[in-house]
């Protein structure tokens, strides 16, 4: 939908036309369109959204827009939105809101829903319990297909998903049935005859990254969540799992770029906050780089005897850093996809060592030829740089593959062992290697 046309209709008070447009638009597209409006226009346009679609649009908005609307809603409007909002979306919203808005929302939901919200809010932030919803379809063993279909028709509109139904016995999960089975099987069959008993589930304190991994591995639409007593308390749906994947990928990217993660979108984060997120790592890396400087000063005699040695330092350091980053990126990805484990560390090292020999030999040979031709056929100098480059690449690739695995083993995020940190370590190693080889061959 063209924003200008929509705004023209809204400003001309052609509310019937605006309502017709909103009626046929997808909830995600409406939220995106409203995000470009000023506050006053946003509130007016939101009130024109068909009632049955309003909660879906509200759930797709960012927390800033939601907070503004909550402040503007009447008590009746707020209750209507909250009644139609799924539990997990309500909890996500409350986690972002200031205390005064949280209080107002909790005052406008039923006691039953408020109790469920408080339970979910008390789960650890990175757990399955914190992203689950309590709105799912549960059935009994002796329920027939016909009775199950009638039950879904009656209550399904209030559930997050009806594609998977859960068979409970004394609140414990004993089986699952898909909507496809219910629609294709005989009406007189019972859930006991129909259900699958091989169930993939998680517990409330399972890490949400592990939850997302299970969705990816088994191509699930929903995943049941059990408490410590093995009773079913909720489900995680695929849309929430995708949000976790996006959040984790964003967090890894920021850490790999040597920044503290930010939960807010780029434009919603202040300049000061952006600076705060970047300064600590940059300060650490800057101070650690002084180690490289102190090593270089130890070899002043080599500089004096052969000043040309200095000109090759940037090439060695950059190549080493790039090689280390290549290895670390692949290993971090392998860890994230559960393809590489700490028990594989020696296999990984052997593989990266063989790769580094091939890569290093090729790059070293290219540099030996280049330096030999450019710098008066100085074979010793070209060999010094070539051998240093080969050794640097081997060390860089080994560091790049080992550090993420070690980080994972000691329960740190492997992403922190990415480019900037590895580059700093490799810089130090490359300088030591280079000047030790150069002083032995040339001086």
From TrEMBL:
Q: Per the annotation, which location comes first and is thus the protein's main one?
A: membrane
- Any one Pfam family match given in the protein's UniProt record, by short name: CBS
**Location(s), subcellular:** Cell membrane; Membrane
- Cross-referenced PROSITE patterns: CBS
**InterPro entries with a match to the protein in the record:** CBS_dom, CBS_dom_sf, Mg_transptr_MgtE_intracell_dom, MgtE_N_sf, MgtE_transporter, SLC41_membr_dom, SLC41_membr_dom_sf
* SMART domains per record: CBS, MgtE_N
Q: Where are the transmembrane segments?
A: 355-375, 387-406, 418-437
- What domain of life does the native source organism fall in? Bacteria
Record membrane topology:
Multi-pass membrane protein
Limits of the CBS domain: 132-193, 195-251
Keyword terms of this UniProt record = CBS domain, Cell membrane, Magnesium, Membrane, Metal-binding, Transmembrane, Transmembrane helix, Transport
* Free-text function comment from the UniProt entry: Acts as a magnesium transporter.
What protein family does this chain belong to?
Belongs to the SLC41A transporter family.
Quaternary structure? Homodimer.
Q: What is this protein called?
A: Magnesium transporter MgtE
Give me the gene this protein comes from.
mgtE
